[in-house]
Write a structure and sequence with these properties.
- This protein is mainly α.
- About 65% of the residues lie in helices and about 0% in strands.
- The protein folds into two domains: about 90 residues; about 55 residues, Arc Repressor Mutant, subunit A (Orthogonal Bundle), CATH 1.10.10.
- It is built from eight helices and no strands.
- Helix 1 runs antiparallel to helix 2, helix 1 crosses helix 3 and helix 3 packs across helix 5.
- The radius of gyration is 20 Å and the shape is globular.
Length: about 180
């Protein structure tokens, strides 16, 4: 199969899922389309590296890298705006920035743990595919998936009046095998 035919197959398999990936991360309209276009451009240039039988994990890995770079840029921009706003007199500042960060995953989780949960819950990535996206071993991917929701549960147990007690939690932890 020539490069153009391979790309057509990759495009047809990846366009819809990549668009959903972008939308699930809070991108809308042209921003979502830009992410999809960037990923497909890389796929076109590196078509020989795209696995012909399972292109989605490879495409998700590229999308993940683009998205994380954009998140870092946005964070630096917000920090710069906050420093700038802090240097202005209080009456001159109304709202320096609306971050617009997707908060569907628990805020108590790290960015990387939130992304692991998004990939599995929203994008339907299997643990094996997750390993490809995160560029780690399947065992490490399963460990990250298993570990991701823990901080939220630990935070709930620390809150006063929480129904979860340490004894009940320890008992529940030994019966969970998933």
């Amino acid at each position: 199969m020539d490069s153009e035919s391979r790309f057509r197959v990759v495009f047809e398999a990846g366009y819809g899922p990549l668009r959903r990936y972008a939308l699930h991360r809070g991108l809308t309209g042209p921003d979502a389309e830009d992410l999809v276009a960037q990923v497909l451009e890389v796929a076109w240039r590196r078509i020989g590296e795209v696995p012909p039988d399972e292109p989605l994990p490879w495409l998700y890995a590229v999308a993940h890298n683009f998205w994380r770079n954009q998140v870092r840029k946005d964070k630096r921009r917000r920090e710069l705006l906050a420093r700038f706003a802090a240097s202005l007199p209080a009456e001159a500042v109304t709202d320096p920035s609306d971050p617009g960060v997707l908060r569907a995953a628990p805020a108590s989780l790290s960015d990387s743990d939130q992304e692991v949960l998004r990939l599995v819950a929203w994008d339907g990535v299997t643990p094996g595919e997750l390993a490809i996206v995160l560029r780690c071993s399947p065992v490490a991917a399963r460990a990250r998936l298993h570990r991701a929701p823990r901080p939220a549960g630990q935070e709930a147990r620390r809150r006063p009046g929480s129904p979860a007690t340490p004894a009940a939690t320890a008992k529940g932890a030994t019966t969970q095998a998933t």
